[in-house]
Amino acid sequence: MIVVDHVTKRYGHTVALRDLSFEVPAGVITGFLGPNGSGKSTTMRVIMGLDAPQQGRATINGKTYRELSSPLHEVGALLDAKSVHPGRTARNHLRAMAASNGISRSRCDDVLEFVGLTAVANRRVGEFSLGMSQRLGIAVALLGDPGVLLFDEPINGLDPEGIRWIREVFRTLAAEGRTILVSSHLMSEMALTADQVIVIGRGSFITRGTVDDLTSAAAQDVLVRSQDNARLADAISAAGGTTSPGPGGSLQVAVLDAATVGQLALRESIALSELTPVRASLEDVFMELTASATDYTSSPGAADV
Amino acid sequence: MSEPTVRAAVRFEWVKFRTVRSTPIGYAVTVLLTIGLGILITFAIRSHWHTMDPIARFAFDPVSTSLAGTLFAQFAVGVIGILFITSEYASGSIRATLAAIPQRWRVVTAKVLVLGVTTLIVSEVVVLAAFLIGQRIYAGVVPTATLGGPGVARSVILGGAYLALLALLGLGLGLIIRHQSAAISVYTSLLLIVPIIVIILPSSWQNTVARFEPSALGRSMMSVTPSSNMFSAWPATTVLAIYVAAILVVATVLIERRDA
Ligand SMILES: Nc1ncnc2c1ncn2[C@@H]1O[C@H](COP(=O)(O)OP(=O)(O)OP(=O)(O)O)[C@@H](O)[C@H]1O
Ligand SMILES: [Mg+2]
User: Fold this and answer.
1) Whose CA is nearest to atom 29 of ligand 1?
2) For A63, which DSSP code?
3) Would the pLDDT of A158 be above 90?
4) Could you tell me if A220 and A278 are in contact, meaning their C-beta atoms sit under 8 angstroms apart?
5) What is the pLDDT of residue A303?
6) What CA–CA distances, in Å, run from B159 to A62, B33, B238?
7) Are B260 and B178 in contact (CB under 8 A)?
8) Long-range contacts, A189-196 (Cβ 8 Å, 24+)
9) What is the pLDDT of residue A293?
10) pLDDT at A298 > cutoff 70
11) Mean pLDDT estimate for chain A
């Protein structure tokens, strides 16, 4: 289990994390969501003992990272796939990392095999594509067969094939009972990979839960088609809802739910030809959750890009 | 209790040290400069010996002149030490290193051991070779020295130690500065610009200060008889070792405190 306990981290005048607290339960995949600059990478570095917070602390199985005497056996991390000396071969990089924690050479060959890099093990890492570097990073993370794994935006820059592969890897690792924390700024990605998500914005905790919980808690619009949209719209505004023109002569209703809209139509004796709850897209939910906490909000006209 | 982990850290650093090109290239340059320039310098002295003035011939030191290549090789070993750490900051692999060994002083200790011992072994062999080749070249024309002569073996051994200490100086500066080119500039300034600054000082100061600058300490370590206003060999070694130790202590304190 990973515990982030009232962590505040400043870089000069920038407050990257403000009194951030959360727990990552053991044995499941936890998604770590937040917009750009919200502090996901900083949190990972604090957990790894790389950056020291001004206040609070992060522990793994009850110990701070610096208290771990053979850390690769307890925690594996892929923070930045490209941060390997470019002149070293993949095999030598793994062997060096293995030597640091008394891990055998045969284990290096095993993890190379697992990530499918055996054929290129003797090539210099500088020649690797991003996808190959990600695979090497995962191999390093798995070297010590750790129970806790951290991945910072592992999907970034991968092609569809690579994404499918990495999802598969996560599932395999989770099935083995490992604790996995994966950061992302895509809620849709987390819906596919994570059992639950933790959402942060501007360095503060926002919410946590399963993706389904968060989605159903989010406000839903209703799409309605009727024989008299104008009169229905009046009735809806009178009841406190708002309307906007929807696709193909329909009416999009916010604030009120489908049942209320149905009752209003019945009361006004307006025949309905369609009444559909519009499930908010995952990204809409995410935007809604983090709207007040987004560092770089784009102008309205630039949406949908 | 921490002994096995320091040993693991040493193995870690050793694999990293020997698996990048800059290490063998750096040592090849060290060999080339120490022996190659040693040959050129001793040949030049041999061919001008008969036209040299008598005072110069009287004060002539066949040992330190045959080791003069080390004063160029000192840049190569310094760069080896600097790259050993700054390449990790440049690539970001320092984070992998500190994730593997979060007790950062262990990383510094392991780097010091790997770099110091390797450079010492290489340098001792190379300096001895430069000495023997130099005496061969002098033989028959210029007075020569043998390892059995007073202070000769000491000069040769300390010549190798000088290079090893300078490699560690480079490592310490690299740890503190973290950027390759900035660290190399500071290192070369210490060896080349500081002596020039010393020359500008009033001569009364010069006499006391000049002996403390690093390359002067190196010359003291390698000369059989100390010249006036200079340290003799062992005190010079001690002063240089204190410099290196102080820089490494500062480097360790900084790496423990700073964000990676
Ligand atoms: N080393 C640093 N020095 C100064 N500021 C930093 C540093 N690292 C992070 N920050 C700042 O802290 C904040 C959080 O950054 P962080 O990289 O943790 O966010 P993130 O959630 O990982 O973003 P992204 O999705 O873009 O990767 C940002 O405002 C960033 O500019
Ligand atoms: Mg990030």
Assistant:
1) A37
2) B
3) no
4) yes
5) 38
6) 51, 14, 14
7) no
8) A189/A31, A189/A155, A190/A31, A190/A33, A191/A282, A192/A167, A193/A29, A193/A31, A193/A167, A194/A29, A194/A30, A194/A31, A195/A28, A195/A29, A195/A30, A196/A25, A196/A28, A196/A30, A196/A31
9) 61
10) no
11) 90
Quote the CA–CA distance of A115 and A38 in Å, as a whole number: 30
Task: Give the separation between CA B137 and CA B229, rounded to whole angstroms.
Answer: 31
- pLDDT confidence of residue A301: 41
Tokens coding B64:
């330190």
Q: Which residues of A touch B103 (CB under 8 A)?
A: 66, 69
Q: Which of A67, A69, A93 is nearest to A82 (CA)?
A: A93
Helix (H) or strand (E) run with residue A285 in it: helix A282-290
pLDDT digits 0-9 by tens, A37-90: 999 999 999 999 999 999 999 999 999 999 998 999 999 999 998 889 999 999
Distance to chain A for B251, nearest Cα, Å: 17
Helices marked H in chain B: 3-18, 22-31, 37-48, 54-58, 62-66, 70-91, 94-100, 104-138, 152-177, 180-188, 194-200, 203-209, 214-222, 233-257
B118: left (phi over 0), alpha (psi -120 to 50) or beta: alpha
CA of A283 to the centre of ligand 1 (A): 22
Q: Which residues neighbour A92 within 8 Å (Cβ) at sequence distance 6 or greater?
A: B15, B19
Q: Which two tokens stand for residue B36?
A: 């190659």
Nearest CA owner, ligand 1 atom 3: A11
DSSP H or E stretch at residue A180: strand A179-184
Q: Which of B194, B195, B183 is nearest to B247 (CA)?
A: B183
Q: Which two tokens stand for residue B124?
A: 């001792």
- Please count the other Cβ atoms lying within 10 Å of the Cβ belonging to residue B237: 21
**Coil, strand or helix: which one is A84?**
coil
B257 interaction partners in chain A (CB closer than 8 Å)? 52
- Give Cα B112 distance to the centre of its chain: 14
- Ligand found nearest the CA of A51: 1
ipTM: 0.88
Q: Please state whether beta strands A2-11 and A148-151 pair in parallel, antiparallel, or not at all (unpaired).
A: unpaired
Rounded Cα gap, residues A204 and A190, in angstroms: 19
For residue A225, is it left (φ>0), alpha (ψ between -120 and 50) or beta? beta
The mean per-residue pLDDT over the stretch A196-221 comes to 87
**Cβ atoms within 10 Å, residue A119:** 8
| pLDDT given for residue A66 in this prediction | 95
Domains and CATH numbers, chain A: 2-215 (3.40.50.300), 219-278 (3.30.70)
The answer to whether the CB atoms of B91 and A85 lie below 8 A apart is yes
What span, in angstroms and rounded, lies between the C-alpha atoms of A71 and A67?
Answer: 9
Q: What is the pLDDT of residues B20-59, one digit of tens each?
A: 889 999 999 999 999 999 999 999 999 999 999 998 888 8
Interval B242-252: pLDDT, tens: 999 999 999 99
